[in-house]
Amino acid sequence: MDNPPTTCGVDVNRDCGAGGCIVRYTIAHRKESLEFLVHFIGDITQPLHDENKAVGGNQIPVLWGGNKTNLHATWDTQMVEKDAGGYGSAVIASFANKLITAIDSGAYASQKASWISCSNIQTASACALAWAQDANKINCGYVLKMDETNQELSGSYYTGAKPYIELQIAKAGYRLGTWINNLAAAA
Fold this sequence. Notes:
mainly alpha
């Protein structure tokens, strides 16, 4: 029984009636919070999500396979799907496993520690800025290096972009795993 100041305590069933309380809200919104974290870390690691030019490439018209689209959508969807070999759960799982192998024992094994050099949950803003600056370098180094306006990007541009796509997705996944582990450890 909660009877302040004699005894204090929270019982979710007793104290969070039909009107709810912050405890029920927190429990109910864990999935939403996790989805936000996944989206945020994924986006901040990708080129064009931290770029002001043409609203992050959304206003740069390009072609993909002869179809009109924009540069941002091409980096977010078309190039990732082509690199993964399509879309759907099985394709994504296979692509993720390829990247996990590269992180654990392949091309990215020697780099992974640097990806999480900023992983203190108490300095989330500083980490977000560092990750955005890292991704933004790719905008100047490749993504926006030439004028892509109305260009077909599914050929040589995609071939040049592929290493960046895989590297940035690997970074995002590794950072996400580290952040989830750090959040769980702090709980």
